[in-house]
Amino acid sequence: MKNTVKFFLLFLIAGFAACKKNISEVTYQGGTAPVLTASSTLPMVLDIANKSNNAVTLSWTNPNYTFSTGPSSQDVSYTLQFDTTGSNFTNPKMFEMSVAKDLSTTLTVNSLNAALLTMGLAENVAHNMEIRVKSTLVNKSIPLYSNVIKLTVTPYLDVKYPVPAKLYITGNATPGNWMGGGDPELGSQKFTKISSTQFQITVPLSANNSYLFVPVYGDWGNKYGGAGSNNANNVSGDDFKPNGGDLKAPGTSKTYTITVDFKTGKFTVQ
Prior knowledge:
Blueprint: H1 2-24, E1 28-30, E2 36-38, E3 44-45, E4 54-60, E5 66-67, E6 70-71, E7 77-84, E8 95-100, E9 104-108, H2 109-118, E10 127-137, E11 141-145, E12 149-154, E13 168-170, E14 192-193, E15 198-205, E16 210-214, E17 224-226, E18 237-242, E19 247-248, E20 254-261, E21 266-269
Parallel strand pairs: 3-12
Antiparallel strand pairs: 1-5, 2-4, 4-9, 5-6, 7-8, 7-10, 10-11, 10-12, 13-16, 14-15, 15-20, 16-19, 17-18, 18-21, 20-21
């Protein structure tokens, strides 16, 4: 009986050692960097009128990851990387787009434009871009990088609301109180345009009173206010819309900086 047990234990130990040896012998043999192609590499001037149209189709080959046991059975993931020429894909604002398993993807005019704007690139200016695809196995292991495709792309200004030439604040929360119809411009109530879509003003506000934004001082034909009912906004910032409700000032009377962004349709009060 003792000999039988002893033999059985030796058999288990030998089997375990053999399995461990077999597992340790599974090694990565290599892969082939994906080959990236584009449906067009001509300079592109993106147009908001065509935002639903296809801009470019990007396709790439299978990297064929192989191990000593044969081709990998793990799922392969792909990441498209967009960067400006000369940055060598080290730009902190580089745009990345994940693509699961597929070997191609099509970008619409709108999605390509959004990618460029996310990188902080100026609108209506031609930008020299570089695109590549990175393939990885599970947990982003064993990355392989494709060749680089170069494109010149001009993005367009994409805004939630048309950007007015000027912007003013009016209301009983402001030093100028509510404007009257036909009132001349009040310079102290005028915003400064700080970007292609943003306006900013630093102004005293009286607690819990109301205000609105207007593109023409003294003209009630157009205004911007809250997305909800009167004085229902978050006093630190919220959505705004054309012909919206009165905006409520913060609960403490003091000087605030208000930033209005027509690209996002949001304003902040700090």
